[in-house]
Write a structure and sequence with these properties.
The protein has helices at 10-53, 94-148; strands at residues 59-65, 68-73, 79-83, 89-93. The chain is α+β, with helices and mostly antiparallel strands.
Length: 154
């Protein structure tokens, strides 16, 4: 089955080009957000794996954020506190949290893969529109040259 091609007028090319560029910028911003989330998941997974290696009453460095740390004594290496939603904090096993983080990490990786495919399509679309705009500009320049009697170079 032949692929259906949508025809657009020359007047629609400029706005279409702008819209595709905006979508590309949105896609790149989404990619950055997804990469940031992936870094956060990886950091949490690494920290939990280190916690599992620690013994009871071992001292660890605990990040408070913003590059600030505090030394803390581990009282339980099997459970951590987690926000389960609505501001409710619950004690959860480290292994259960690790499974959930791995699941979320894999979902984020899939989202990044979809984002990359979407970005590739947008780049292809933008390149096609640029070709059409360039051809239109050449045709207009040649038309103006023919109307004024000025020779044009192709």
């Amino acid at each position: 089955m032949a692929e259906e091609v949508e025809k657009i007028s020359p007047e629609q090319l400029g706005p279409l080009y702008q819209r595709q560029r905006e979508l590309l910028e949105q896609s790149r911003a989404q990619k950055q957000s997804l990469q940031d989330v992936l870094i956060e998941f990886n950091s949490a997974i690494d920290a939990l794996n280190e916690l599992k290696k620690a013994g009871k009453n071992d001292k660890i460095m605990l990040s408070l954020g913003g590059g600030v740390y505090i030394e803390a004594v581990v009282s339980d290496v099997q459970k951590v506190k987690g926000n389960i939603g609505g501001g409710v904090i619950q004690s959860i096993s480290v292994d259960k949290v690790l499974l959930e983080l791995e699941k979320r990490k894999n979902e984020t990786i899939k989202s990044l893969e979809l984002n990359a495919k979407d970005e590739a399509k947008l780049l292809e679309s933008i390149a096609s529109i640029e070709l059409a705009l360039n051809a239109l500009q050449r045709a207009n320049a040649q038309k103006q040259g023919n109307e004024t009697g000025t020779p044009t170079v192709s």
